[in-house]
Amino acid sequence: MVLPDTRTKVLDAAERLFAENGYRGTSVRAITNLAGANLAAVAYHFGSKAGLMAAVARRVIEPITTAQHARLDEVLVRDADPGIADLVEAFVGPLYDEMPAHDAGGARRSRLIMAILGDPAEEARSWAGQDEAAVRERFLSAFARALPGLAAPELWFRMRGILAVTAVDRVEVHHRPTPNCSAGAGEEAKRWALTFLTAAMSAPARGTVR
Amino acid sequence: MVLPDTRTKVLDAAERLFAENGYRGTSVRAITNLAGANLAAVAYHFGSKAGLMAAVARRVIEPITTAQHARLDEVLVRDADPGIADLVEAFVGPLYDEMPAHDAGGARRSRLIMAILGDPAEEARSWAGQDEAAVRERFLSAFARALPGLAAPELWFRMRGILAVTAVDRVEVHHRPTPNCSAGAGEEAKRWALTFLTAAMSAPARGTVR
DNA sequence: GTCTATAAAAGGATAGAC
DNA sequence: GTCTATCCTTTTATAGAC
Fold first, then answer.
1. Which H helix or E strand runs over B11?
2. Rounded to an integer, what distance in angstroms lies between the CA atom of residue B97 and that of residue B128?
């Protein structure tokens, strides 16, 4: 068993605190305290607080985009013109599989992504990185082929809808209405999301018709 | 023409800056500077920065919840057992009508709501207030009647989906993929949302079946 | 690589004059 | 109601010893 080095300990602590309190709500001091490291370690290993956030975001997002690429590859091998359900599954599936809600780390990473997406700072855009943009472009093209009646702006609207639903899921944006209605666990929530989003994406275009 | 008093000027400036930079990203100094008011005005009129945020949130949210209640009332008068499309329209419609994207103020208030929902702070929960919770409960019951096959947790999942899609709409959560694919304007975006969400809410339950 | 110490700035809040 | 002046805390970043 290898003990984590300081760099990794700081990264772990930052992931947790950024997820819980957001970027601006987390101080470098709180991170290094939790990590059992020195305040100066952040500057040494990551240059600055922003550099640390970028590193945290990269570590969380990379496995997801990798899985999304792989799933889309599989789908396209099976069928050059895949259906909506397959595309939705290839895009959304990895978000659940890589961040299972029943796992503490998964829920934490999910909250972190929400914190990144919800951050109004311009900087936050760059945290998501180019991986994420590339994946989105690929899926956008695939959906455009599967939904020929849909104009680009409406397709883009729907794509954001997918991102919104999956990002908000498992994040308590409000108090739960009743205690038993908390977020679904693992596979259940994934199935709900796939049902919800496949139906939504399959809706006929309404771009200009009344 | 009545000139706005200091209280209103501060409220306006705060609404704008909170929307653009979030609660934590906005200093009281920046607000009073933009308002052309004195730093101490915030303490005098609102008690504290948090009190100011609560006042801003109330002013934005109240007209929306009022409209949602009214629209649901209308729907229930016409039909004691309304369909999914009517319920979705009654819930989502006011979010677009009260915050038109083509209007600068509408887009700003939309971003503000996103900033509130996305804020990880516990405090942020209370900003949305009880109005919003009451509306959600009413619609939850109405949807439950219209979707008898849907268990409570899955219904709650879908309700959050509606909130997610409408909140994220018109907010650039990422860089736009191509310049022409920006957010849809006004009525168009509303129609896209109603189409997308009505289809999603109408999907058959998948809670436990395979 | 890790630490102490400190710089330098920005933040929220408030006392008290007017 | 509005203003000035100031207090006190917290923040990021860095210089320099070890």
1. helix B6-21
2. 19
Question: Quick check: A121 and B22 CB within 8 A?
Answer: yes
Nearest to B77 by CA among B69, B67, B66, B85: B69
* CA angle, residues A146, A147, A150, in degrees to nearest 5: 155
Q: Between the CA of A7 and the C1' of C1, what is the distance in angstroms?
A: 11
Average pLDDT for runs of 10 along chain B of length 210: 91 96 96 98 98 97 97 98 98 93 86 86 86 94 96 93 82 45 68 97 75
pLDDT band of residue A129 (cuts 50, 70, 90) is confident
- The shares of helix, strand and coil residues in chain A, as percent rounded to the nearest 5, are 70, 0, 30
Q: Is the CB of A40 under 7 A from strand D?
A: yes
Residue A176 has pLDDT above 80, yes or no: no
Q: Which residue has the higher pLDDT, B126 or A65?
A: A65
The H or E element containing residue B28 is helix B28-35
**Biggest CA-to-CA distance, chain A:** 64
Other C-beta atoms closer than 10 Å to the C-beta of A125 total 16
Instruction: Give the per-residue pLDDT at A3.
Output: 78
SS3 B164: helix
- Cα A117-A119-A120 angle, rounded to 5 deg: 120
Tell me if B195 and A203 make a contact (CB, 8 A cut-off). yes
